[in-house]
């Protein structure tokens, strides 16, 4: 039960999102590279437990709720993250949806909480906010435990 709650927390930490599926042709390579960089930065900040940096990758409206969840998660775990693959599934002027394969490996847990190494397939929705791409929502599509 606790483990399942932690997986849900991981999903919340990545934000909350509506997903799509099916790869499409990239029309705006620069925007695609920008949102991919935002996702890479998001994972880098998660791994470094840099709350300010992490929250800065999210849309403003998601920051308060996500902040509390992330602080709790940072206290209990040290996790290594890797962005394995990304695929564009939706592209509009102000919205981009990527599906991403991400790996998470435990470095340290406080002993009271369970965490299993895993690969997730996620859908991330990005929106332009003040001229910059931010993560508006994220959703875990599938998970494979690797330990």
Describe the 3D structure.
It is a single chain. This protein is an alpha+beta fold and 147 residues long. The protein has a single domain (2-145), classed as Nuclear Transport Factor 2, Chain: A (Roll). Helix content is 37%, strand content 38%. A four-stranded antiparallel sheet has the order 1-2-3-4, covered by helices on one side.
SSE arrangement:
Elements: H1 2-13, H2 29-48, H3 51-56, H4 60-76, E1 77-91, E2 95-109, E3 118-129, E4 132-145
Antiparallel strand pairs: 1-2, 2-3, 3-4
Helix pairs in contact: 1-4
Summarize the structure.
With 147 residues, the protein is of the alpha+beta class. The protein has 4 helices and 4 strands. The N terminus is likely disordered.
Tag the structure with descriptive keywords:
disordered N terminus; four-stranded antiparallel beta sheet; 147 residues; alpha+beta; Nuclear Transport Factor 2, Chain: A; 37% helix
Q: How many domains make up the coordinates?
A: 1
Strands, total number? 4
Task: Kindly report the spatial arrangement of strands forming the biggest sheet.
Answer: 1-2-3-4
Largest sheet: 4 strands, antiparallel
CATH topology: Nuclear Transport Factor 2, Chain: A
CATH-defined architecture: Roll
Give the topology string: H per helix, E per strand: HHHHEEEE
Note the overall shape: globular
Strand content: 35-45%
Low-confidence residue ranges: 1-5, 14-22
- What is the average of the pLDDT values? 86
């Amino acid at each position: 039960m606790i483990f399942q709650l932690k997986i849900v927390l991981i999903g919340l930490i990545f934000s909350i999102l509506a997903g799509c599926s099916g790869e499409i042709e990239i029309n705006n390579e620069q925007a695609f590279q920008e949102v991919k960089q935002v996702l890479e930065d998001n994972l880098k900040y998660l791994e470094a437990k840099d709350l300010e940096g992490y929250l800065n990758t999210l849309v403003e409206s998601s920051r308060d709720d996500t902040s509390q969840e992330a602080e709790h998660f940072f206290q209990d775990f040290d996790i290594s993250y890797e962005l394995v693959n990304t695929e564009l599934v939706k592209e509009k002027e102000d919205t981009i949806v990527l599906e991403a394969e991400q790996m998470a490996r435990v470095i340290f847990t406080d002993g009271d909480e369970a965490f299993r190494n895993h690969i997730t397939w996620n859908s991330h929705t990005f929106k332009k906010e003040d001229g910059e791409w931010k993560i508006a929502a994220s959703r875990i599509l599938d998970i494979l435990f690797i330990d």
